[in-house]
Design goal:
Elements (H helix, E strand, L loop, with lengths): L12 E2 L2 E4 L10 E4 L3 E2 L21 E9 L6 E5 L9 E13 L2 E10 L11 E5 L1
Length: 131
């Protein structure tokens, strides 16, 4: 399979194939090298948990926290219903603010403020993406 890797590529096996040309100046004979296979594992978050006893009302600040493990700091993004946060329901405060927790663990916090009294309603999905 060629092309970009997507979420549905979970657990797929991948190899790197390097092909090189003959170069008489550097005394190199053309050929190719194929790496051993490696399995892709994509971690996903199923959702955020609403803290019991927390009643979010108009004007309250709501923080969403997402964590990612990897060798370098990813770019985090937070969305709702597949696009940016609904500006009729939330005001942007800050974020994502990224903190390196250890050598391979990063945490991002996205802060919003409610414009209307609400809780996460059925059908509203909030996503954190780490690229």
């Amino acid at each position: 399979e060629y092309g970009p890797v997507h979420d549905d590529s979970q657990s797929s096996q991948f190899r790197c194939n390097v092909t090189y040309q003959t170069d008489k100046i550097f005394n190199v004979i053309g050929g190719s090298v194929v790496s051993s296979s490696t399995q892709l594992e994509i971690a996903g978050m199923k959702g955020f948990t609403f803290s019991p006893g927390s009643n979010i009302i108009t004007g309250d600040t709501v923080s969403f926290t997402c964590m990612s493990a990897g060798s370098s700091e990813p770019t985090f993004s937070f969305t709702t219903d597949g696009s940016t946060f609904d500006s009729s329901r939330f005001s942007y405060i800050s974020g994502p603010n990224v903190t390196k927790l250890n050598e391979h663990l990063f945490q991002a916090v996205y802060v919003t403020q409610t414009k209307h009294a609400n809780i996460l309603t059925n059908g509203q999905e909030i996503f954190c993406k780490a690229d």
